[in-house]
Amino acid sequence: MIRIVTLDEFDAPVLKELSRVLYQTFGVGAEHAGPVTVPHGQQEPYDANKLLDTLPQVHAFSDDKVLFLTTRKLAPRKLPSGEAPTTGLARYDGQRVVVTAAHIKNVAENVRLLARHAMQEVGHAYGLHHCLDPRCAMYPQWTPSYPLGDASFCTFCREQTEAKIRSMKS
Ligand SMILES: [Zn+2]
Ligand SMILES: [Zn+2]
Question: What is the whole-number distance in angstroms between the Cα of residue 7 and the centre of ligand 2?
Fold first, then answer.
């Protein structure tokens, strides 16, 4: 299942809707597992990599995914061409994922966008790569059109996800 762990306060309806979308997308249970506190010494903007390394252990089975949610900014990634904003980070085929809502103006009215970003990072944790379909949540999230899209996968990514989760269950 997908365990949503909050690093900051999120409204209950937001978490409920996010859980619903993740359940619908991945076909595994998704629920708010409670809050955790960010370890000392980390300041906004958080280093997303360091967060994933140092956040406390959460009760989870080995095939569970843990989605950490924050309202704080994540430090931009440094690229040879400049900086790219960080909206989330996942380890491919890993367990832990972090997603920020800092760039979303009114999260309660825009759960769709938070869910789209969460789908992308959880998708990476299930081994999915970026997708060329601009409507798909796995489309590169730094593109200007990304926030306009729906919280949904294209057929290819949906089938990949289903195959992946089936293989984990067997
Ligand atoms: Zn990505
Ligand atoms: Zn796709």
Answer: 29
